[in-house]
Each structure stands twice: as C-alpha cells, then as structure tokens.
Amino acid sequence: MAHFSLRGKSLAALAFACLIVLVPAAVIVWLGVDRLREEFGSAHAQNLAILNQQHMMAPLSVELALSRQWAASAATRHWLRNESDPEAARLFFLEAETYRRAVHDQTYSISSLASGNYYFSDGDALADRQPRYVLSPTEPADAWFYDTLASNAEYNVNVNPDRILEISRVWINVPVRDEDGTPLGVAGSSINLTSFLDGLRGRDEDGVTPIVFDRMGAIQAHPDPALIAYNSGASGSDGEHTVYSLLDADGADAVRTAMQQAARDPSHAVELHAALHGERQHVALAYIPRLDWYAAVAVDPARWSGNAMRQWLWPALGALAATLLALLLIAALLAERLVLRPIRRLQTSARAVADGRYEVELPDASDDEIGDLGRAFGEMARRVRSHTEDLECRVRERTLALQQANDAMSAAQRQINASIDYASLIQRAILPDRQLTQFLGEQHFVMWRPRDVVGGDFYIFHQDGENCLLGLMDCAGHGVPGALMTMLARAAVDHAIHAAGPADPAGILARCDAVMRTMLADAHLPRALATNADAALVYIDRSAGRLVYAGARIDLYASDGADVQRHRAARRALMDRRQGAYTNLQLPLRPEWTYYLVTDGFLDQAGGERGWSFGDERFEALLRRNAGRPPAEQAEAFTRELAAYQGNNPQRDDITLLSFRFH
After folding, report:
1. Counting beta carbons within 10 angstroms of the beta carbon of residue 636, is it exposed (0 to 12), middle (13 to 18) or buried (19 or more)?
2. pLDDT reading at 170 higher than 90
3. φ and ψ at residue 576, rounded to 5 degrees
4. What is the three-class DSSP state of 621?
5. 533-541 and 183-192 strand pairing
6. Residue ranges of the HAMP domain (predicted)?
7. Tell me: the pLDDT tens digits for 149-164?
8. In what order do the strands lie in the sheet with 117-121?
9. With a threshold of 0.85, does the pTM exceed it?
C-alpha cells in the first residue's frame, strides 16, 4: 500500500467531502430549476404589476383631479352658457391658461354642446380662442363627445386617436353640467400615449407583456397597438379588443375573479395562471382605483427565465466552481500552516524531552506524523503520574462538568422564559382589540389579565356587516397549557362560526364542542387532565334591535345602573364529560343598558379580610354603581375595586371581562 503523508490524506479527504456534497447538490439544483423559474416568474409578474399601477396612478390621478376642478369652475360654466360673450370668454381663457400650465402635457380641450365647437390648446395663444373644428352627432369620430354627455359617469378616460389633429393621446373627459344638471359641454386634458406606454415596466423584457385594461376588460395599453380598444371609456369596447379575447374560457373566468379580488385590496397584486395567446403564463394584476383600470403583467416563464438563466445562472455556477477550487487551495494552505507545521514542532520538542528519561510501552501506531507525535508523547506520559497532578486533573474535570451543567441550566431557563414571552405575543395577536375598537369605539372595554405570562382566557369578535358576534372563552388550565388550549379553541370557534353562521350563538357553541371533541378524540389524554372550556356568545342584531345570547357556564349580565339582570348559561361546559345542550336567548337591545361577560377568574378571586371569593353579589353591586358611567371610567373602576379587594392575595385564575353597549 502506498505511503501517504498527513498532508496527502487531508487533501484527499477534503476533495472527497467536496465531491460528496457537490454531486447531490448539483442533482437537487438541476431538479429545482423549474420550481425556481416558476417562483421567480410569479414574483416578477407581481412586482411589475404593482410598479405599473403606481406609475400610472400618480400622473393620471393628478390630471383627473385638475380636470374635474376646471370643469366645475364657475368661469367655465358661465362661458359655455354665453360662448359669444367677450367678457366671459376673457375670464374663461385666462383661467384655462392657468389650468393648461398645471397639467402634464400642458394641453387642454373643451367642447360646447350648444355650438358644437371643439377647442384645443397647446400653448398657442392665437389659436387657443378659435375652435379647431365643429362636432357633429352624425360623425363617428365625434361619438366620444355625445357618449360622454349621455353617460352618468362623472368622467371617463379614453385612448383615442384623433384623425383630424393627427395625435393619439390618453384623453380625460369630464362632463360640464349646470347647477341643475343640464349638460353644457366636455372639458379635459390628455397625456401622450407614447410616453404612457414607454413608462410601463417590463415592456422591453423578453417574455414579459404589460397590459392595461378597464373594468369591462377593454385593453387601454398594450405593446401591440392593434389590440388597444380605442374610445372604450364612453361607449364600451367590442369583444376583439378585450383582455378576454387573449385568453381561453378558463383564463377569462380566472381573470374576472382576480379583478374582484384586486379591487377589494388595491395595495396587493393578485396572481393567477392563464393561457395567453395559447401559452401558459404567470399573470399578475393590480387595481387602479381612481381610474377603475387594472394593470396586468403576463410573464412567460420559459422565455423570461431562459434569458435570466443565461444572464446569471451559468455565470453563477462558474463562480461557484471557482470559489470551491479556491476554498480547496485555501484549506490545503491552512492545513499546512495550522496543523502540520505545529505538529512537527511538537514532535521535535517531545523527542527532546523523552531522550532517555521516560519509558512507555507504545501501542501499534500509524507511520504518519500523528503516529510519531503519539509515540513521543507516550514516552513522556509514562512518568507523569503523580497524585497531585491526578487530583488536579479530577478537580478540573469535575469543576468543568459542574460549570457546564450550570451553563446548560441557565441557557434552558433563558430559553423557556423567552419562549413564554414569545407565546404571550402570539396569544395577544389573536385577540381582536383593533377590530373591537374599530366597530364599537369607546362604547366597550376589555379587562384581560392572565394569571401567568400567558393564560387560558380569550375573547371573540366577528363582524357581520352592521351586526357583530361578541364572546368570551375560558379554557381549562393556566400558563402554557391554558394558552395552547386557547389556540385549539380559537381554531374550533372560527370553524364553528363559518359552519353555523355568526347569528346562531347556540349553534356555534354546539359546533365548537363537536369540533374540539373530534380534535382530541385520538389524543388518549389522561382522565385527570381537564380539557373543558366555559364560553358565552352574544350576537348583536342592530337592525332588529335585539341581541341573541347563548352560554356554557358564563352568564350574561346587563345593568342600567339601577337594576341588574343576570341571564343564566347552560350548566355544562364545552368538552364536558357529558355533552351539553345550548339554546339561544333573544333579548331586546336597550341603548341605556350596558352588557357584561365575565369569566370565573374575576368572581372567584380571593381577597378581603377573610380571603373569600369576590362573589356574584359583590359583582352585581359593582355593576349598579358603575353601569351608567362611560366604559373607560368603568374599566378604571373595575380594575381599582378588584385590586383593592385582592390586596396581597395571589391571583387565582385568568381574569377576563368584556363590556359593551350600543347607543
């Protein structure tokens, strides 16, 4: 067998390790190229859609706002009613010049319904006051004017080539109407269509098609001018110039659904897959609110990613290979400098110390540098056996072990505390504080005090149009177990609301009980482990002036400051050993009354001179004293009185109180 030095063995091992890592990595990368291409194509389409949305919204929104302000001007209306009045014309054209300088392309147009005169200004003072031509109802090219006045829309935006003026622009047309709604004419401005298209992101990228279309699907901007639906804003568009004509039936349906989603959330682009011109592509579209348009970008992953891969993938692989080779060389140099050279120095020193003074029996060793070093130190180690050094060695080992154990315990404690703090943030994130504030404003308050950092109580809010569903849930257990139960219960509640509907609290409780039993059916939990949960739900039907209540061991209190009403819940909790039956209780929604849902942690809190529970009677007296006050003052009063009663006694249970009223 050939003799290899330690240097040769190190280099061979490093090269073999690189080979073992690189071969599977190369296979995985090769298999993941398609996935990577799809993900990058999708992300690129969404980013370009948002960029095009923002690019078009800013200038067109400004242009639209200026045009509407000009159309509503008193000078504009007065001149259109008295077009032959020199003083009215002077005031109008003075104001029109100010408007022209403010708009993007410094042009404007205005047309009179009474005379049919069409005025267009591009800064030529002499030509501005003379009509460029006279509109006619029988001329197809003038249909935009009469369609705009006939439409009920406050404005329309058209891509319209004007054959007479030999210009093609994006026209913003705003009807000018008298105070009584009588149409007087159409005013507006324009933006050069060429600069509009040049501004679309992705237009020059291979495999990327930016498209702009309106809510009817009429194409307003496209790299292919033949596909644009000219003059679609006022009279609609034919089927040949819509985005649907570029898609198959399934793709058209998908685009209509995506349009609805994008309109609900204009801040995000909606992504879908569709066959555009017969090729499967990633399509992302974003809604432009002020224009009621959609900015879409279609990315053909095969064409786009192929160009991207040529630009960066193969250079990246070459750079990776060069980097690995450089790392191999650096590792070899480091092995020589940091391992082999010190070992040779230690070998020389050990032989000098071992010269004739130490004798040890050496086991069979290898013939490389490590073997020589072992033999040299073996000869020296035979005489290093004093009891002092042995004792010091043991003390050091035991001290190190103890220190390591202490460090491990401290690290574990820190990790546990950090995990519990993080769990508290997660638990607070599921509480609907923001939704409650948005819906109820100052007409509610919540007292939520877990016994530990996290707890088993949480409260519920679900908006149903002008109505809403409110509720509390008290899961068995405290701390981390209780918090985990709240996650399970919250998922069950959301499922039950979706299944039963928010207007049926009893149905939600029954459905929630069934879902939780199903979730834990195969868990084989010990019988001593409590998994039950108290709950109460109240559906507020504002239109009917009533509330619907159902509870599982959590009662509904109501008070007007003079009287207190307590509506009893079902006796059995959710997940009880025997399944409970829950019914809806319908009550009138009284504006002067305040309603309360409270967990047993409040009522069972020990305090006072004898350490007794706070109790129902004391709680009802608290309601009488404070129900007539504003909710914010009630919250302070409840917190203050509970703290005073509790004193130095520890908190027994998680405490949650939800109060609300409707004026």
Report:
1. middle
2. no
3. -70, 165
4. helix
5. unpaired
6. 337-389
7. 888 888 887 766 554 4
8. 133-134, 117-121, 108-112, 183-192, 167-177, 156-162
9. no
Domain boundaries, the chain: 6-31+307-381, 35-50+205-302, 58-195, 432-660
In this structure, the chain runs to a length of: 663
Taking the C-alpha atoms of residue 139 and residue 145, their distance in angstroms, rounded to an integer, is 11
Residue 286 token pair: 């974003």
Two structure tokens written together for 436: 């409650």
With H, G, I as helix, E, B as strand and everything else as coil, classify residue 167: strand
Residue with token string 């050496």: 362
> For residue 367, is pLDDT > 90?
no
If one looks up domain 432-660 in CATH, what number appears?
A: 3.60.40.10
Residue 580 and residue 511: Cα distance in Å, rounded? 11
Provide the CATH number for the domain formed by 35-50+205-302 in this structure.
Answer: 3.30.450.20
- DSSP single-letter state for residue 410: H
Q: Which CATH number fits domain 58-195: 3.30.450.20, 3.50.50.60, 3.40.50.2300, 3.40.50.300?
A: 3.30.450.20
Amino acid identity at 23:
V
User: Which of these ranges, 10-14, 88-92, 325-329, 399-403, has the smallest mean pLDDT?
Assistant: 10-14
Q: Are 451 and 604 in contact (CB under 8 A)?
A: no
CB atoms within 10 A of CB 581: 10
What are the C-alpha distances in Å from 138 to residues 114, 134, 174, 549?
A: 16, 12, 22, 67
Say if residues 461 and 658 touch (Cβ distance below 8 Å). Answer: no
235 three-state secondary structure: helix
26-30, 75-79, 183-187, 385-389 — which is least confidently predicted? 385-389
Q: How many CB atoms lie within 10 A of CB 335?
A: 18
Q: CB neighbours of 237 closer than 8 A, spacing ≥ 6?
A: 214, 216, 217, 218, 219, 229
Q: Any residues with CB less than 8 A from the CB of 380 and at least 6 apart, and which? A: 350, 353, 354, 358, 360
CA distance 95 to 90: 9
Structure tokens that stand for 7 in this block? 């240097």
Residue 349: pLDDT band by 50, 70, 90 thresholds?
A: low
Give how far Cα 523 sits from Cα of 484, 515, 519, 520, 526, Å.
14, 14, 8, 5, 9
Dump the DSSP string for 77-118. Answer: HHHHHSTT-HHHHHHHHHHHHHHHHHSSSS-EEEEETTT-EE
Q: What DSSP assignment string belongs to 364-384?
A: P--SSHHHHHHHHHHHHHTT-
